[in-house]
Amino acid sequence: MIYFSNIVLGFRGFALRAGVTSLIFFFQACGGEVNLPASPSQKKLSLAASRPHFSSDSAYMWIKVQLGFGARIPGTPAHQACGDWLIAELQRRGARVYEQKGAYKGTPIRNIIGSFGSDTARPRVLLSAHWDSRPWADKDPQSPTMPVPGANDGASGVAVLLEVARHLAQAPLAYPVDIIFWDAEDMGREEVEDSYCLGSQYWLTNPQPHLPAAYAWGIHLDMVGGRQAVFPQEGHSRQYAPLIVERLWGVARELGYERVFVALPGEPITDDPYYLSSKGGIPMVNIIQRDPMGRGFFPEWHTVQDDIPVIDRSTLQAVGETLIAFLYSFSPQTLSPH
Ligand SMILES: [Zn+2]
What we know:
Elements: H1 11-29, H2 56-68, H3 77-92, E1 96-104, E2 107-116, E3 124-130, H4 151-170, E4 177-182, H5 198-205, E5 215-222, E6 231-233, H6 235-240, H7 242-254, E7 261-265, H8 272-278, E8 284-288, H9 313-329
Parallel strand pairs: 3-4, 3-5, 5-8, 6-7
Antiparallel strand pairs: 1-2, 2-4
Helix pairs in contact: 2-4, 2-9, 4-9, 5-8, 7-9
Bound molecules: zinc ion (ZN).
The site of zinc ion (ZN) has 5 residues, from loops.
């Protein structure tokens, strides 16, 4: 799904940093203590005492429902049915729902937007995930032409946001939040530039219902349900929204998830939030699973094995709980991205 934009330049420096990072990851993953120098971001954070409880059981169920539709490939009946269901679920949670339909680079696009809170208030916060699944399991040695079920790659992000949306309805935030499910994120080929993330690229050509400038910052979720998942601080997120990254990983640490949200630099990944930040000017953070030893995203990535057995409720809980605590403890008024 993604290629790394900095491979060409500082390979040696990059390799060195990657080596050290992997070593630290490895050490931490094995439960070892790595005494990293205490950075200013290690200060104690006060989190909102009353905040909703994130249910990983619900999120897990929403993954199963998406898988139940079959491969969510743009232009197919399964995709149509899942899209209709997502709209109904957002409406059921009290969102104003917008559908952005069109075509981009020859691919049909159906972006789904659910707005919570005032429609006119500014600044807003953007939460997003991609809802399509990859048509080809091109990393699968046995079945490279079969579709990817996409339990972790992309259904997990959608599921966590549906569970967050349930709470946005029951305990409204003091600021407006838009949840966007991007379409056609996973139709790309590594050798073709900008062939991934077609839904978010299309939205940037014709943003609705709000312009990019309406957003103070945003958080994107991709592959957030994998077993023993680790989320380093993705490179573009550190570049475009360093203070949001610092605060979000700080919240995870306060909740005891410092081994899941590992406060170490990760590679820059060209994904939906990269386009939103670099082209749309929205400071975005990407919470995306990354194998600590640099072996890609997760072992079953882009194979037919990316199915429900890959999903671990404790990872969903770590991501969902951290996101909820963050959203109910900070706001666009109290937290700027830089
Ligand atoms: Zn993918």
